[in-house]
Amino acid sequence: MELKQLITFITAAEHVNFTLTAKMLNYAQSSVTSQIKSLEEEIGTPLFERLGKRLILTEAGKTFKSYAQKIIALTEEAKMATNQVRETTGTLKIGATESQCTYRLPPIIKEFKQAFPQVKLIFKPYISNEQAKEQLLQGQLDITFILDVNRMEDALHVESLIQDEIKMVAANDHLSCGFTSNIEGSSKRNSSADRGRLLVPHAL
């Protein structure tokens, strides 16, 4: 079953006229007849029938038409998606800590490279969140992954990605066990190291 056969069939199904179909597709009428016959042999049932001089779709033909239209639409969609991937090239400069590159980013990188194989990724480590923000604003980075910060620059767009739970562990007889509730409340207010974020310049 070839794509050109499906296109010929759909054109013939819409106009129920092999002569007009041949003219529209720039085929000889014998080619249209041959393509339809090949489809019918492959499917195992007639797609058209003649009532006198009239050509009509069989019930099988009506059913097959809807599937043929879906196949052609999916084929076009696949072509567009493939072209977009092929055309997406360039370099993406990413700021990240060593631990993020080791533990957090590998699955994300793998998925990205599968979708955009022509894009080159360059990772640049940073020491502090402020340094990462400065590199973004200066154009040294395209995006960066940082821990939560208290103040954002207006020129930066922020996306929250993950939130980790941080727990304190101590022996049962340790003095801190009696202050667990107070520590928990304080950490919820003051700790900013539990949320991973993605920063990108607004102009990106």
From TrEMBL:
| Pfam families, per database record | HTH_1, LysR_substrate
Keywords associated with the record:
DNA-binding, Transcription, Transcription regulation
Q: Which InterPro entries match?
A: LysR_HTH_N, LysR_subst-bd, WH-like_DNA-bd_sf, WH_DNA-bd_sf
Domain (HTH lysR-type) ranges: 1-58
Where do the coiled-coil regions begin and end? none
Q: Does the keyword Transmembrane apply?
A: no
Source domain of life: Bacteria
Among the GO molecular function terms of this UniProt record, one is: DNA binding
Cited Gene3D superfamilies: Periplasmic binding protein-like II (3.40.190.10), Winged helix-like DNA-binding domain superfamily/Winged helix DNA-binding domain (1.10.10.10)
Name the family. Answer: Belongs to the LysR transcriptional regulatory family.
Record-given protein name: HTH lysR-type domain-containing protein
What species does this protein belong to?
Bacillus subtilis subsp. subtilis
